[in-house]
Write a structure and sequence with these properties.
The protein is α/β, with parallel strands linked by helices. The chain folds into two domains: 259 residues, Rossmann fold; 90 residues, Immunoglobulin-like, CATH 2.60.40. 34% of the residues lie in helices and 23% in strands. The chain contains 13 helices and 14 strands. It has a seven-stranded mixed sheet with strand order 3-4-2-5-1-6-7, sandwiched between helices. Strands 9, 12, 13 and 14 form a four-stranded antiparallel sheet that branches. β6, α9 and β7 form a beta-alpha-beta unit. The radius of gyration is 21 Å and the shape is globular.
């Protein structure tokens, strides 16, 4: 069972649209799919044709009540033969207050524990997260093995995703749980030069972490949500159905690669050491296409002092190859001042070459 959280602290970027329509396309391919609606607004629940006011029990009863983690199957609603939903309701917004007295480790394990008994029943679990990084999102990240970050093709959205990746890196470090993160460009209007240029910057910035699939702006997606149906069941020939169908195929293919692709002997990792010096910095992390652009994921760090200047040593295990990277210095993304290579566009980039 692959558990995928759809996360972005920004609203209106396509989290619910991606959750519902990806679920529909996977279900069309006869994959057993469970949508977990963790957003108190219950938009995924509504977009799958279910009125949260008419549901007797919802995820709050599973995550807040003693022993609730053992009865997730009791609240599930069938959408069709291949697709179920764990519905949300506004009461989910009270979960953090309800569990305030519990240790953090216990509070963030609720969803993971609830999914364990149904692990044989589904091929995919898609978790629609609220537009904030709080207890509900913590639970989603703890339960998931993969994260999709929908990214609206705008400059401000790119900056927001950089901050989100930094936050996910801190959470990964805090909860001791590894995640595979990928960025999904959404709300793309290829008719404008601005959108085309922004998409090019997204691909240059995130490289292999970015899906090949791009979700185009499509009014049919909004119409399908209003009708309570995934786009593939509402307008199969619409751009939205084509795009989410392509995303489903890409995700299925990535799953096969994760299961079958093994590194060859000549790709054995080497130890790579880089250092950052700054007398004013308080926190320095490193992120690149070697760790999904999640700061300090899979990195061993040492902090020393050299003649009054603080030195951060980052130790990485990397197979041979070429890797772009940046430092996150007190929350700001910067190139390596000792390894900033000018590009024809004038923007510098830092690259590690491992032989």
């Amino acid at each position: 069972m692959r558990v995928i959280a759809i996360v972005n602290q920004k609203g209106g970027c396509g989290k619910t649209t991606t959750t519902v329509n990806l679920a529909g396309c996977l279900a069309d391919d006869e994959q057993r799919v469970l949508v977990v609606d963790l957003d108190p607004q219950a938009h995924s629940t509504l977009a799958l044709g279910i009125d949260p006011e008419e549901v007797d029990e919802n995820l709050y009863d599973v995550l807040a009540e003693p022993g609730g983690e053992n009865r997730l199957d009791e609240i599930l609603v069938d959408v069709d033969e291949w697709l179920d939903v764990a519905p949300a309701a506004i009461v989910l917004s009270a979960l953090e207050q309800r569990l305030a007295s519990e240790p953090l480790e216990t509070r963030t394990e609720r969803l993971r524990a609830a999914l364990a008994p149904v692990s044989e029943a589904y091929d995919y679990v898609l978790i629609d997260c609220p537009p904030s990084v709080g207890l509900l999102t913590f639970n989603a990240l703890r339960a998931a093995g993969e994260v999709i970050v929908p990214l609206e093709t705008s400059e401000f959205a790119i900056h927001g995703v950089e901050k989100l990746l930094e936050t996910i890196g801190l959470l990964v470090e805090r909860i001791g749980h590894d995640l595979t993160v990928r960025v999904l460009p959404t709300l793309y209007d290829g008719r404008t030069r601005y959108a085309r240029e922004t998409l090019a910057r997204v691909r240059e910035r995130f490289k292999d972490v970015c899906f090949d699939t791009v979700i185009r702006s499509n009014v049919k997606l909004r119409e399908a949500a209003a009708k309570g149906r995934p786009i593939s069941r509402y307008a199969r020939s619409a751009n939205g159905a084509i795009d989410y169908g392509a995303l489903a195929i890409e995700i299925e293919a990535l799953g096969l690669l994760m299961n079958d692709e093994l590194p060859s002997l000549d790709e054995a990792p080497r130890e790579v050491v880089v250092r950052f010096r700054d007398e004013r910095a308080n926190d320095v992390r490193i992120a690149g296409d070697f760790n999904g652009w999640i700061p300090d994921k899979g990195v061993r760090s040492l902090i020393e002092s050299d003649s009054g200047t603080r030195v951060w040593t980052k130790i990485l295990q990397l197979p041979p190859g070429e890797y772009e990277y940046r430092y996150v210095v007190d929350g700001e993304w910067v190139e390596d001042p000792e390894n900033a290579q000018p590009e024809p566009t004038g923007a510098p980039r830092s690259v590690l070459v491992v032989r």
